[in-house]
Amino acid sequence: MSSSSQITFDSTLESLAYHTFQINSTTPGLVVAQEFHQNPELPGVIVVDNERVIGMISRANFREQMNYLNRKNLYLSQPIQLLLDVIRVPPLILSKDCKILVAANEALSRPNQLVYEPLVIEFEPGQYRLLDIHHLLLAQNQLLNFSYQKIKQQKLKLKQSDKKFEAEKSKVIKYEAFLQQKTSLIHQQYNQDLSQQQAKLTEYTQPIIQLNQHFVRVSERILVETRKAFHSIFLNTNLTYRNTEHLFEISQAMARDLEAVNSTSQLLGEIIQKVRHLAVQAAIFTYQLDSSQPEGLSKIGLEINRLVSETSKVSDQMNSIARQLKFNLQELRESALEDARISCSTLSYIEQAENVIIQLEHLVNSSLIHQKNIQHYSSDATYIIQSIQRALKCTEDRKN
Prior knowledge:
The protein folds into two domains: 13-131, CBS-domain, CATH 3.10.580.10; 196-399, Methyl-accepting chemotaxis protein (Helix Hairpins), CATH 1.10.287.950. Helices cover 77% and strands 7% of the residues. The chain is built from seven helices and six strands. The chain has helices spanning 29-38, 59-66, 69-77, 80-87, 100-108, 133-289, 294-399, and strands spanning 22-23, 44-49, 52-58, 93-95, 119-124, 127-131. The strands form two sheets. It has a three-stranded mixed beta sheet with strand order 1-2-3. Strands 4-5-6 form a three-stranded mixed beta sheet. Helix 5 packs across helix 6 and helix 6 runs antiparallel to helix 7 (294-399).
């Protein structure tokens, strides 16, 4: 038999005093009778086969069956299974970790004829112990006494808390009266300060509203004029860009004509050389045919030379004019390209300026909304003051 320790609400059946008497179904009844005789406190015997409880015989049931003289010798000489089949009392098997209060409720919930039967406690598979119902009820009673003491302590603490509560309540009443007085003074001072602040706010708001209105008017005028100016610049820039493109096309056409002139000048030079060569050959041939008139041949040669010289001068002048025209044409082309680049850059700046104008328009719209909010602020402030006054009045009425 094990000894019980201090019982608490968390105590389990393992902490109670239990008995160890376990046999198998083939054990003779005489062994059970001898064990009951040697151990008067033993509440019963557990019958176990193959680590499984097949039944439990309490001391009371065993003694009752032994009172029949015609059966006593039979039960003592035969295996205990015979007596177990006659009694047929289902044992209440609980775990060692079962709480004491739970086990007591389980035990007392059995039929009346089984209420005082011992409990079987399972420690490990195949290891069982017996718990006397008397010990379980003593443990339950101990817990009830413990609960009663706890309730008494809680009631005592509750009384002490009530006294402290009354004392604190008296302090709270005093503090409430003091707070009400302070609240009234604060309320008066707050109303006075709020009225002054509202007057100052109204005084400061009017110049801001006027300045904002002036800003809106100026901004709207700037928007209108700027849009007109940008539109005019945009049209002029597009016209300049188109004229530049046309000028660039003309310069390309002139370049092509200049190339043709240059080619013609080169061809004319080649013809002059050929004419000069033919003139020399003709002079030689004529001289050979008619050597009696050298003066005439000399005049013809001089005339041919003069014609060749003048033609060469004309060719040189054409080449000089072509080079000068080519140089001027190159400058014109570069100027057209620069004008086109400037036009593109101007268009880009106009787009950026239009974005700035859009942002300025948003700012003006925001200013208009802000102006409306400022105009309603004074009326909102008055409404807030009245709401605060009503709330403070309701608070004072509830306290009273």
